[in-house]
User: Fold these one by one.
Assistant:
Number 1:
Amino acid sequence: MASPIEQFQIKPIIPVLNFTNSSLFMVVAAGVIVGGMLYATRSRALVPGRAQVVAEMMHDFVASMLRDATGKEGMKFFPLVFTLFLFVLTMNMLGMVPGFFTVTSHVIITFALAMLVIGTVVVYGFMKHGAHFLHLFTPSGVPGWLLPFITIIEVISFLSRPISLSLRLFANMLAGHIALKVFGGFVVSLGAAGGFLAVLAPLPLLMAVALTALEFLVSFLQAYVFTVLTCIYLNDALHPGH
Amino acid sequence: MDPIAFKYLGAGLACFGMGLAAIGVGNIFGSFLLGALRNPGAADSQFARAFIGAALAEGLGIFCLVVALVLLFT
């Protein structure tokens, strides 16, 4: 029987171009997003149809999230945040289709996305505020003798952000898909055992169904958490120094 | 004793951290629900904050998972 981590194997499809199944599903995700959005907004009706309502709801969902976290001037980051949300959400959801590859279950992909966010924060923060951006590490109202320790803690917490942002998404997707596969494997091995044990085989199947529902929730939730944290980190670039 | 055995013991011990993170996440949502039931009107505005707290608490548990995975597979 296949091992639970075999589903994460990267296979080359066009070896010359280094085009793998991971790249394929990234292209599919981008195609689904662009195609879906073009389809939804093709008529741009004043009274929206079903597809247009879905697109508008997603737009408003992300826009209100960004506005709550960063205020009005943060809205210039809306294209970045909206793209990140849709891309992560679509890749998570595509991974839930049986036999499809989950792109976000590879740490290098999520780390690249997290570094994009943190890179934007650092570059924009220094561009807009210059050296004042470093006030991010020295919160106001801290007694003088405490300041060196607080600064060290703040620097460490800032440096661990890309790591925690990427590992959270990666580990959630990885652990969920492994758990699904393990419970699927229980069904097969219990059924193959025969006798009384074969009668018990539907039980892990029920568990796998429940876990699938949970995984859909987790796919959405992790995309949401990734976007919310992106908004909060962007807020640091816009308003450093608390 | 076999060093490989210690590796597996270490991976098992790292999983304690995940259990502790689970207590933290449960605490956050428990407190959120407690407050939300007393004042349902204010619950919606604090929903995102509860998830941010849960995400941060969960991140520390995930570091433990990564330690366990590194011990198991390297």
Number 2:
Amino acid sequence: MPTKILDIAIEETVRGWTGLAGYDAALFLVRHGTRPIGKVTVPVVDGAILPGRVRGAITARMIDALAASMSEAELQAGRAKVILPSATVAICTRERPVDLHRALTALVALDDLGQTVLVIDNCPRTDATQTVTAGFPGVRYICEPQKGLNNARNRALAEAEGEIVAFIDDDAVADAGWLAALVAPFADARVDCVTGLTMPLELETPAQELFESLSGFSRRGFSPRVFQAPRTRPLETGQIGAGANMAVRRDLLARIGPFDPALDAGTETQSGGDHEYFTRILRGGGRIIYQPSALNWHRHRRSHAELVSAIGGYGTGVYAAWTRSFLSEGEWGVFRRAFGWFIHDQLPTLIRSYRRPATTLPREVLWAELKGCAKGPGAYLRARAQAREAGHGQS
Amino acid sequence: MGRAEVPPVISVVIPTHNRRESLLRALDALTRQTIDPRSFEVIVALDATTDGSSEAIQTRCWPMKITQVVSEHRGAAANRNAGATVARSARLIFLDDDIIADPGFLAAHLAAAAETSGAVVVGQSAPVVSGQGWFHQALSDWWRELFAEMQAPEHRFTYQDLTSGNFSIDRDLFVDMGGFDASFGTGAREDYELGYRLMQRGVPFRHARAARGLHHDASDLTKSLGRAKGEGIGDVVMLRKHPALFRWVRVSHLAANTSGARLLRGLVYHVPAVGRLVRWLAAGAMPLLEALGWRGLWTKASLVARSLNYFEGVALATGTPAGLQSLTDLARSATVVPNSLRFDVGNGFKAMADAVDKARPAEVCLFDGGQMIAFWPPMPGAEPLAARHLQSQSAALSGRRQLLLAARHLLPPWPQTDPEGITNVVDITRPWPISLGVIDVESWAFTARDTNPGYPMRLMLRAGQTPLGWLCLITPNAEGRFWPAVRNAIFADAAILRRLIAACGLPKTLPADPPGISVVICTRDRTDTLRRCLAAVMALDYPNFEIIVVDNAPASEATRDLVARMPALRYVREDRPGLDWARNCGVAAARHEIIAFTDDDTEADRHWLSGIARGLADPSISAVTGLVAPMALNTEAQVYFEDVYGGMGKGFDPAIKDRADLGGKGVLWASGFGVGANMAFRKTALAQMGGFDPALDVGTATRGGGDIEMFHRIVAAGLRLAYEPSAFVWHEHRADWGALEHQLRDNGSGFAAYLLTAARNRSVPRREILLFTLRDWIYGWLIKRWLRPGKHKRQLIRAEFRGLMKGYASYRQARHRAVELEKPKGSEGRKA
């Protein structure tokens, strides 16, 4: 049941589309000017969408977003220019030259804010990444030999010149206005971190559809949100965003420390590095903004096997991050949170997957998540030991 | 020492009281300044110090000149004043002894002062707290938030931004103001008080981010609670001096006329022991709550403890409730009329920014025509508004105001003159008759539907073909004007604004090839209403349609004669009595693929068929229903039917009825899909369904339900039905109570017959129909309404119930008759 992704202006919602043979539906990202204001899924019939269908599917919510965008545009006219802090874009990658090439092509075409682009090549086995990067003059190549995404992120924080470091995944494509939108909220000195909206780059396979519905990347809506303790509990980071589309103030390094090298891809914990960092920011009283106009497009995993392992890795990462929060920050709330997640979400879904399989996710995905969760604490302890060893080896 | 021959450019005044180590650290930091140590002097104001601070300073050698001033214990205010009196430079910096200045501290203060001459410059005190727990985190957050807000470009400074620990001011100004008010003694708030006087005098405030020091705040919970009490006392002292501030200070919460405030007053004035107990419990619970990780409760406990301390301080300073009352009276007499700027957005935001910068008002009201869309309130002790303060305007706009700003661009200029002939007589004792009218927002064309329009008035707002909603005008606006009242009504309705943006803000749907439509009008001996109906249908703006009048078992030839006089109409006669027989006859006679039905007592809108075609443009849609609006609201019965019973309209938002989304219950509420007075079908869908059921509707014993049953059958079969409000007709509701009662009785029997038909056809499982009948219709709609009628009339509910009771018998009778009638011809209608 592939879904075509289309990026349209609000004025285009009246027209029809043809040539969509092979697709069951189309997901439209609707913009007013350059600002995304909503998304809508419309079924494809006989390879086409009739004129007026998209318009008919527009909801009252999108009208509100359109009104907000129109009035904002008008108010912008009388507004003084705000000086934005300087920014560096960091893309952490490992052996994915094709994706990286696409990502860099988009990054060099970003609106110019005087930014620099860093490629952090994490523990490379080949020189493919270096070769791709060499094709983009002005992009700095840095090799981080210590394996682990969080090591690469820390390296980026250390190497960046900008006051703000914006992170994007190598399998994501940035919208032209991505960086400007992501950096804009930092004009407020209280903001420590900004996350953006991540839309799917393609939904060609069932695994990608499933990932889209699971990850909730694009489910956070189209109006900005503010996260700050105590209104946002520090462990409730799932709603904030992900490392695929975030920017942090570089001086966080001094205030709350680096990303935990024992977490995230490249280590046994597989993920969770970004969310654990959000937790620490919130605990430190920092403010995180979700800024939907900071838009990028993420290519989800194509095969079912990759998806299942990614979901398992997600479970591991969540539990590993909680293990760290408990061990390093003495955060007892993780138990309540783990219990709540299991009782209110995981267990009922699992039961439902046996009773009414059609209404839930495939069972093996649910099991993969649970198994991943179980592995989390052990994985964190081992990864931490490894990271410490590596740290000693270096110093 | 004593090397400086030229007077220093700046004097740093450090008040201190028995904090030797802290003081020495602060002085050390001043030796590392980027500016020449000979260009500034330090005045240490020792307040009854007994810990040897003075000696410790003297034993060391300092690069800058240090003067000591000793005073007996009179409080921070007097101490700072004493320090200021010996200053030799033109600029004073007040620095607390627990702030470690950055090397660029003095330079930054000087630079900021040079930039805006005469300004009070508030530096940044970055908090360094002495502990790890939530209290210290909250304390540190409070400080950080304070300075982060000052750094925001749109920040509006208030008297509370004068943080006495780190600010600079011209000495002459300080002396002229009389310095800090020493009457505060050892209490708090002397800084706010000075800040207020400076604001009153119009002294500009600036924040210098670079004038930074690390503030070692040694507070803990106990000290902070004690300080809250001092703040309570200080606020009272300040309010006695400046009563205009009353509303903005927390003391006013205690004086409020609410049950909470009364309870609080009782607690702090009459049973202070209980107040102290509650405070002690709350403060005592905080460590426990923190250990448990209950942040929300901890925050509440902290608030309770602090507030009780604060109000205890207030009680201490005011003495008795009478003391508080005298403070309130003082405040009432000191009301200030703020200097206000009213601005209309029609002139543009740029112009507004210029006007605000020129006038520097205390408050700004932003208007759009008569409607206020944003307001920046006055606040004593805040600097006058400038354009930069308004830059957070979009945040100040609520969702409806955003809709409004977006919508006002889509409307043409407002007409200057009101339409003529509106009688402005308002009789509010009678909510009817209500005049009806139509306003097209694309041209502001006003069409009254009454010959003698007046208030109260109900106006259908439309944008070209698309109806947007009803505007209810009970009166004209205060000046007796019509259009301003219309504008206010439009701008007050978010749903209308949303539809307006959708209709006018988005490009119009591209016109498709208009398909041919057969309009079928079934009638029986009502030539007077039929004449009006036909006149409207013949005036439709649709290019490709035919009109078929079905004369159902007529008693006379009047209808045929009427139709014969009008060209281009087709006349068909159906002798079997029953509306559904007539409808099926009309379908058989129709030449086009789309068949639209309306009743003989309606008047179709000019764009009716365009709306029908719009609804059916999507090939997956098999049937369309449209909006039915009241033709007149002249009698109480008509208003009751429209407003209380629910009328015939189904709202102004298009909808698609699809079995997949509705579920069994939703499919059975087919009366919500539309009404027979305004419906259209594809011929193929009607053929697939087998036509209307002749046992139902007017002219048979069941007296209704034929239209609803068809909607239900279509949706239950999995076909899709669209509700399209842009296809709309006006319908004449029953004018008197007797006729209305009959109509509602027929509704009851018709609905019962419809449910019996559905049960016979098994279009949904019978179990669901039974459940729906008992739970949703009989209980949910009839009995519940009868028990709690509200505006409903029990007599009319009883009529509906009577219809229901007779439903089964009449259904049996009508079925029997239908089978009988079918026999001789046997070609039309639904097979039994």
Number 3:
Amino acid sequence: MSRQDAPKKKKIKVPKVVNGIESEVEIEVDDVPGGAWPDRASLRLLNHDLPRVDGPEKSSGRARYTHDVRAPGMVYARLLVSPLPHARVKKLDLDAARKVPGVVIAIALQEEPKWLGEPIAAVAAESVEAAEDGLRALAPQLEAMPWAVDHAGATRPDAPRVGKDGNLGKPETNGDEAKARAALKASAASITATYTVPIQHHSCLETHGVVVDYRGGDEATVYCSTQATTGFAEEAAKPLDLQASKIHGLNEHMGGGFGGKFGLGLEGQVACRLSKELKRPVHLMLTRRDEFLMGGNRSGSVQTIELGGSASGDLLGMVATSFKHGGLGRGSLAGQPYIYAVGDTYRAVRSVLMNLDSSRAMRAPGHPQASFAMESALDELAYALGVDLLEIRKRNVKNPEAWRNEAWKRQLDRAAQEIGWAAHPHKTKPGPATGTECIGIGFALGNWGGGGSKGCEVEVKIERDGSVSALCGTQDLGTGTRTYMAAITAEELGLPLAGVTARIGSSRLGNSVGSGGSVTTASLAPAVKDAASNARALMADHLSRVMNLPAAGFRFMPEGIVNDQAKSPTVMTWAKACATLPVEGLRANGVWVDSLQATGAPCVQAARVAVDPGTGRVRVLHMVCVQAVGLPLNRLALKSQIQGAMIQALGYATGEGRVIDPVLGLQMNANFEEYKLPHALEIPRMTTIIDDEDKRQAVVGVGEPPAIPGAGAIANAVANACGARVRELPITPDKVLMALGKVV
Amino acid sequence: MKSFRLLNPTTLDEAIALCADPKGGVTKLLAGGQDLLTEMKEHLAGPDRLVNLKSIPGLDAIEAGAVGLRIGALATLAKIERDAGVRANWTALSQAALSVASPQIRSCATIGGNLCQRPRCWYYRMEEAHCLKKGGTECFAYGGLNKYNAILGGGPSYIVHPSDLAPALVALDAEVTLRSAKGERKLPLEKFYVLPENGGVEKETVLADGEIVTAITAPAPVAGMRSTYSKFKERDSFDFALSAVAASIVIAGGKVTRARLCLGGVAPVPWRVPAAEALLVGRVLDAQAAREAAEAALKGAEPLAQNGFKVPLTKTLVERALLSLAG
């Protein structure tokens, strides 16, 4: 339908207050084009670089995170977590803890912890220091029970039983093994290799935690660093024994989540219990060490891939045998051959249970693991066949949705151009391990949905003083939610970005979807657009009555509002127009509109590295990402988000990984000294390219896809540089030297 | 962290008296606090009293002149790294200071504290692992996760010496000045450290209770001396050494007349390699000489299960460090 058609009428619901009692009434307004985004060329704010509206607040320290909350009479709680993966608590001196000056409560939580880091007891005190002294006074005596914390330990014949039905999950299989093996046999060349990825941690700067403010009575306020503001208050209702509607959930700002911050969590449950009992506010944020042990993680895996192809590089057969390491959970792993199409495939995946905390969702759950293995195997096969690394990718992307394949192919070309592939000498075989700086290039692909769903309720309010706000009980996981809420509304009403205030992070605002699976933007942005369109329609409706002009004629521009159908059209300023509103201003609601969003976020990444064969040092010099995003709402925020994902992949590739001593059962690197996140000097040149060939006039979430291919691209670049094929992440100097045969 | 009393003496004699007080309980010296406070937070140290050396004026002077180098124990790493005299004549030390941790830490950490810091072995650093160094019966690194541990001089403990400054200073023939109630003594820095097999299990130095490192001195460089410190980190931004090499060489008439080579990050003490030094003297410092010296430096290395990579890595570092001094 052309947007120039005469507007039809549509019915919308608006709030109406009579004698102080609010109700909703249905009214009819012009059906302004709320179901489609304006042409890209006509956008003033959207599809531009918009510095985030809460940036100054965050960078100056004024933004209040859950960690920063202080309430009158508040106490600080700490958890005693099990230092052993499986144990019986023989003695716990709660009385001694209670006698520590400042300690107000000490409770036992678990008599037989079954995973490393499971909370055993909790203490709350007037100060953090007193709470920590209280924890030590508990002086727990633990009897070690048999445990398994690694693959070998969990799969040996006499392994202690972690789960009721043993440690190995039932194999999930897919495909015909005999056919796949026959295809492998018929291949011009095939490779067999085993790829291992460790458990990765979310490493949010703000640890998990809550502040529960209950001081008696039937109401409470709960502050929580969470990815789902809507819902956690309801979860707190049970431990607080209050009606859910009497609990105000707040999450004004949060310091990262990456998939690991859903629900109230064990720590939240404990804080509710303590607050209820004490009738005092309780502050319970995990320590960094506790965060490593009980804050969730990305599951590890061991994947053996047999892959065969034709002489020209068509993939013919694949057999993938994989194990997932998700602690007491089942872990996650996307199905091989992941993004590529292979003639005949067979895969079998089993989870291996261990006495560790269950893995949680983490930025594209299961995908970076699968991508690293498949992209590595693909390059190994390309070398065996002597096929160009770019070519083999283009040949084997055969997604049923053809547009995705086209996207990957053009993105590959663009990434190749940016990374300098044309001039690179090692296209079909790795370079020699000589000199001090071997340069290598690697590629990898990513794929994701990123579509939204129903669930967000947005309200746009226009006040008589001209101020405008957009409200929703959603959260900003770090993606700049407030900025695009304000921008969408401002774009619709012809206002500057600063003319709209976004309010989020409260359970008293409209419902929101949780932020997981890259769904937030595609779920929320359409609802904001809908609310803003409705507000515009209501404003036009109001002005038409005030000015006695047809509502259809109003245009909302930065200069003001004009009615084209007036005899002598004059521009009325926004302030003047608003001044004609009734005292309660104007309010409009919005819900999700399917046509404003879409699914599908393919991407390609490339990495250029320098490997020193004398030391095994890998320096990532340059990373490129070309990402399909549909209609970009805020290009600056998108690029930041993509860069963050690339850095997370860089860490996964070169430094991160949980290390547990299988005998002592201790995590050796539950701190930021030994758990080696990339710091400033490790960050390469990063080229983030929004794929503007993706012309969809629809919003797509891209939180996860750029986190997928980076590790595979880097691993491939290392092998391409000098033949050092490291099949276990992270790629550290010891493994590079080992792969080069330099360690005797 | 256990509560403690913070004492702020204003003279060295006062500090020494406080340390010698038999009724004082466990007393520790506080300089930059970068290691000690971490140990206290991790419950690896629980002193009753801290004697704050920062409250004593004049302990942080750097005198880099024709007669030699003298650095007060309280001089920060940032100050050392920025000192033009140190950079010009004791280059290895300047480079070593710059290689430590982060700018924030370097602005607090002192040379005295750096030389006396405790090892980073992750078993030692974890309270729950009651290892040999903490009075237990077993060095868990020996049969455990030992990627970061010693390949030379290990046993019965396999820690590696963590300081960057120490190998550089050993290569520069530095001496350390110690003061206690008994008076002052001065000894080569090399002799300050003790191998585990020689009694250095629960502590790593000869520093006696109540004794204070007051200064580090090094002779003036002879004509033709040049030095370098090369540190290899797993993560460039912020890390301890996986391996490091300090070298100082005197070249006269085109030939090496004196050589000092000291390895870091591979042995429980700064690991001087006299065989490699001897091999260089009297020769032209060329690729062949550097390679032979590297081989000699690593001779006798006994890697554990996971740290064999340190052998080729260190050889490369030695070779390259020497060649960088040849030109």
